[in-house]
UniProtKB/TrEMBL annotation:
Domain of life: Eukaryota
Species of provenance: Serendipita vermifera MAFF 305830
Record-given protein name: T6SS Phospholipase effector Tle1-like catalytic domain-containing protein
Domain T6SS Phospholipase effector Tle1-like catalytic as annotated: residue spans: 6-276
PANTHER family, A to Z: PTHR33840, TLE1 PHOSPHOLIPASE DOMAIN-CONTAINING PROTEIN (PTHR33840:SF1)
InterPro entries: AB_hydrolase_fold, Tle1-like_cat
Length: 437
C-alpha cells in the first residue's frame, strides 16, 4: 500500500452551528452544544505515524454551518435565521470546502469528508463534484461557479476528468435532503416554505460517487418531522463489503449529530464513526473520552437507553409542517442495518408519531453488532458497568436556571420531564432555522 503524502480532512457542520465561537470546552463533559462533527474534527491529531515511523500530516478544515456567520465578537448576523431556513449559501459552503481541497491537494494525498445535517449534504456534494469534474488547478479555481452553472443547466456540457481522484472516506450524520430556495416576488419572500431543488449540479442526491472508497452514514431512526427528510445513499449495505455502511441509530436528528442539550445518544454515533475511521486517521482518544457523558447516579437503563427526541411532538414550530416516520426507508429496497444499541431503546415517553422496532411492518432489518476492543465497544462497556443510569435533567435543576433561560425559551412538559426548548417563542422566522437542518 502506498503511503499518502498527507491526509486532507474537511468537516462540514450543520445549520446554524459554529464550533469556532462555541464556549464549550471539548475535553469537558460540559460540551453539550458541540456537534459530533466538531468533536471529531478536534480529535484529529496533526500527524499520523505510519509503520516505518514516518509522520504523515493530517490537514483539518472545519466549516461552520449554513447561517452561522458571525462578527468578531461572535455575534450572529440578524439575517442568519433566514439564511439557515432557505439554504441560499449552501453553494458557497460547497465552494469553500471544494476549494480548500483543491488548493492543498497533491497527487497521492488522501481526502476525507465529514458532515452533519445540511453539512452532510455539503460533504456529499463536494465528493460528487470531485467525481464529476475532478479537482481544478489553483489557476482555474476562479471558474468554479461558471462550471457549476453549466452543470446545473446542462450536465453534458462539462467534460468528465480523465483521471479519477479518489475520496478515501465520506462519513456523515443524518443527511438532510436537498437545496432549498425561497419563493419570491420582486425580491420579496412570499412564503416561509421554500421551493425544493433536487439533484442540484446535475448530481443525483442519492447516488454514491464512484470515487468514494468508503462511505459511512449514521441515520436517525426516531426522526419524525416531515421537514427533516433524510437522503440515503442508494448504494446497498452488503454483508462482507466494507465500502458502504448505512446504519440506523436510536434518536431524532439532533440525537444523531449532536449539538443539543442531551447527547447520550449522540455519543454512540460519534464513537461508532470514530471506530470506523480509527485505523485510517490518528485520533486523540482522550479528546473523545473527555467529552463523553458519564452516567450519573440513578440510571436503571444503561447504554442506548436514553429517551429519543420526538421532534414532531416537542418542537411546536414544526408541527404545522406535519409528521412522517422513516419506516418506508428503513424497510425499503436499500439493505438496512440497525445499530445494536437500538435493542436498548426504551418505549418513547411521548409515543405520538414515533416509530419503534416493534412497530416496524414487514421485514425487520439486521442488527450491526459491536466488535470487542473498539472505541464504541469500550463506550458500551463503560456505560453498562457503571451500575448507574441517566436522567436527562431533574426538574429541580431546570428551575435553578429558569431565570436565565425563560425569556429565550418555553417550558415544554414531555413525559413528566420538564425540558427547555429554545427558540420556540420568537415567531416562525426565528424557528425556521431549525427546520431545514
Amino acid at each position: 500500500m502506498t503511503t499518502p503524502s498527507k491526509k486532507i480532512l474537511v468537516f462540514c457542520d450543520g445549520t446554524g452551528l459554529d464550533g469556532l465561537i462555541a464556549s464549550d470546552i471539548l475535553c469537558d463533559q460540559g460540551a453539550s452544544k458541540a456537534t459530533n462533527v466538531l468533536r471529531l474534527s478536534r480529535a484529529v491529531k496533526p500527524f499520523r505515524t505510519d509503520s516505518t515511523g514516518r509522520k504523515i500530516p493530517q490537514i483539518t478544515f472545519y466549516q461552520s454551518g449554513v447561517g452561522s456567520d458571525s462578527d468578531f465578537n461572535g455575534q450572529g448576523f440578524t439575517t442568519a435565521k433566514l439564511i439557515q431556513a432557505y439554504g441560499r449559501v449552501v453553494a458557497s459552503k460547497i465552494r469553500d470546502a471544494y476549494t480548500f481541497i483543491a488548493q492543498n491537494y497533491e497527487s497521492g494525498d488522501e481526502i476525507y469528508l465529514f458532515g452533519y445535517s445540511r453539512g452532510a449534504y455539503t460533504a456529499r456534494k463536494v465528493a460528487g463534484l470531485i467525481d464529476r469534474i475532478g479537482l481544478l488547478s489553483r489557476r482555474d479555481l476562479g471558474q468554479f461557479f461558471d462550471i457549476c452553472s453549466r452543470l446545473q443547466k446542462d450536465p453534458n456540457s462539462v467534460a468528465r476528468p480523465t483521471t479519477e481522484i479518489p475520496v478515501k472516506c465520506v462519513g456523515v450524520w443524518d443527511t438532510v435532503g436537498s437545496v432549498t430556495v425561497p419563493k419570491t416576488l420582486g425580491g420579496i419572500v412570499t412564503t416561509p416554505v421554500p421551493k425544493e431543488v433536487l439533484d442540484s449540479l446535475g448530481l443525483t442526491d442519492c447516488s454514491l460517487p464512484n470515487c468514494v472508497k468508503m462511505a459511512r452514514h449514521a441515520v436517525a431512526f426516531h426522526e419524525n418531522r416531515d421537514v427533516m427528510r433524510v437522503t440515503l445513499w442508494d448504494a446497498p449495505t452488503v454483508d462482507g463489503d466494507n465500502r458502504v455502511k448505512q446504519v440506523w441509530f436510536g434518536g431524532g436528528h439532533s440525537d444523531i449529530g449532536g449539538g443539543g442539550e442531551f447527547r447520550e445518544l449522540a455519543d454512540i454515533t460519534l464513537f461508532w464513526m470514530a471506530t470506523e475511521i480509527d485505523s485510517l486517521i490518528e485520533l486523540d482518544h482522550s479528546m473523545l473520552w473527555g467529552s463523553h457523558i458519564i452516567p450519573p447516579k440513578g440510571w436503571r437503563g444503561g447504554w442506548g437507553a436514553a429517551q429519543p427526541y420526538n421532534g414532531n411532538a416537542e418542537d411546536m414550530a414544526t408541527r404545522v409542517f406535519g409528521s412522517t416516520t422513516r419506516e418506508a426507508q428503513i424497510t425499503g429496497r436499500i439493505a438496512t442495518r440497525l445499530h445494536a444499541s437500538l435493542r436498548q431503546s426504551p418505549q418513547p415517553s411521548n409515543p405520538r408519531n414515533m416509530l419503534t422496532v416493534k412497530t416496524i411492518k414487514g421485514t425487520v432489518p439486521k442488527y450491526v453488532e459491536l466488535t470487542a476492543g473498539t472505541l464504541e465497544h469500550d463506550l458500551m462497556t463503560k456505560w453498562n458497568s457503571s451500575g448507574q443510569a441517566f436522567h436527562p435533567e431533574s426538574p429541580q435543576s431546570v428551575f435553578t436556571r429558569l431565570p436565565a433561560t425563560f425569556l429565550g425559551g418555553a417550558l415544554d412538559v414531555v413525559g413528566g420531564v420538564v425540558r427547555v426548548s429554545a427558540d420556540i417563542v420568537g415567531g416562525v422566522t426565528s424557528a425556521l432555522g431549525r427546520l431545514w437542518g
